[in-house]
Amino acid sequence: MAPLSDFVKAYDVRGLVPEQLSPEVARALGVAFAEVVVIPDGQSGIVIGHDMRPSSPELSTAFADGVTSRGVDVAMLGLTSTDELYYASGALDRPGAMFTASHNPARYNGIKLCRSAARPIGQDTGLAEVRDLAEWLLGSPTGLYAATGGPGTVEVRDLLADYATFLRSLVDLRGIRPLTVVVDAANGMGGHTVPAVLGTAAGLPALPVTVIPLYFELDGTFPNHEANPLDPANLVDLQAAVTRHGADLGLAFDGDADRCFVVDADGHAVSASAITALVAAREIERARAAGDREIRVVHNVISSRAVAEVVREHKAEPVRARVGHSFIKAEMARTGAVFGGEHSAHYYFRDFWFADTGMLAAMHVLAALGEQDGPLAELAAGYERYASSGEINSTVDDAAAIAESLRAWATVRGAAVDELDGLTVTSPDPSGPMWWFNVRASNTEPLLRLNVEAADHETMERVRDEVLGLIRGGAEGDRADD
User: Catalytic: which of 81, 89, 102, 427?
Assistant: First the structure.
């Protein structure tokens, strides 16, 4: 059996089935979750949901068996998106477990865990202890299968309509102009939640939104394309469908539907930073209308400079954070931020227990577009102000030595340097074209990730090529947007 440390990652569990994540391992993780998190937190029950992968029902049932063996009750939600699981955790005030491997290929599965009210769990906040106890239990079958505290109960709950109703209460789409939207669910959980939230599948009234479905059939083998819209190759079908149908926009969800990507009527992708800025402006005004005075928005260090500019233009405070949901959520909780966004199309809302939901972000885009008469490209142009390289990955042998050479490069030019997350270098001349770049080391691979942004394409390309020359030193590298 593979060591659990091989696939219990910094923020979740993500492994091959059944070589790494088997029903026995899932049961052990359920026992450990109950003993490390649920019972010490004074909770008597949890919620469990799963995606459409073939292995998800069996793995989630095994996890539930482990939890109930420790006297903890379980509400089984069945098929659900990750953000619906977060809704259940928040609305019921219970810890949760979501069985999904998000955008990973079909041979993978995983678990996203949270405390009550959708509070995140990572290596530093309980996941390492869950992993270690589960590993010990797997070496001690007597302990793994021993029942303590009396058997917990299992009930089946369907919260899809409640989830859809809650999201509609946060963004009112009833008064917008009629819109046509193509939605690519990539055979993932968006095919389950979009008809409920934007349609009438959950028994809610019809909205002035016509949804043209693309790959809504739930199929964890992903027969059409990978459920990873961060890869431009997986947006091709959506872009073609938007132009073919003359739609107002397109939406692409990943496998567990917690991330949402947007394309305009011409099929051009709208950057996640632009969506972050657009939604931030709306959430700031919403909070101000509710009486908030000190309003903050969190963004990660590689979001476009336009995000902070838009936040300040709306008389709110931008807050920079490290890349990663645990850092964004922690910073939002610390500052009471109304909203948070990442370049990877994760969008976090204070009114959604500081958790991420691609569906709610999509509803904001629909509302913003439907409340005015222009096309999305025109609306987005106000938030896409600079030229960006996208994320460029380079395989390296000595990341520390490269970082030192980049610091020296910046020092010679008098550029500003900060190290909140990797190395961020900013142009020194306020009278010249603006540019900045960030270089971060991967947590799991020998890669350096470079992001460059500048006032214009020429400046961006010049800085990109010069920095890549220092990073690669003539070695091969790979361009990626993930």
Answer: 102
What's the number of domains the chain is made of? 4
Q: What is the CATH number of the domain that holds 142?
A: 3.40.120.10
- pTM equals 0.94
CA 150/CA 133 separation, integer angstroms: 20
Tens digits of per-residue pLDDT, 233-265? 999 999 999 999 999 999 999 999 999 999 999
Instruction: Report the alpha-carbon distance of residue 39 to residue 146 in Å, rounded.
Output: 16
Q: Judge if 50 and 137 occupy the same domain.
A: yes
3-class secondary-structure state, position 269: strand
Q: What angle do CA 254, 257, 263 make, to 5 degrees?
A: 60
Q: Looking at residue 482, what is its pLDDT? A: 33
The answer to whether residue 303 is catalytic is no
Q: Which residues contact 457 (CB under 8 A, 6 or more apart)?
A: 387
At 157-205, the pLDDT tens digits run: 999 999 999 999 999 999 999 999 999 999 999 999 999 999 999 999 9
Print the domain residue range for 79. Answer: 4-158
Euclidean distance between CA atoms 120 and 258, whole angstroms: 14
| Bridging pattern class, strands 249-253 and 260-264 | antiparallel
- Residue by residue, DSSP assigns 242-273 as HHHHT-SEEEEE-TTS--EEEEETTSPEEPHH
176: left (phi over 0), alpha (psi -120 to 50) or beta: beta
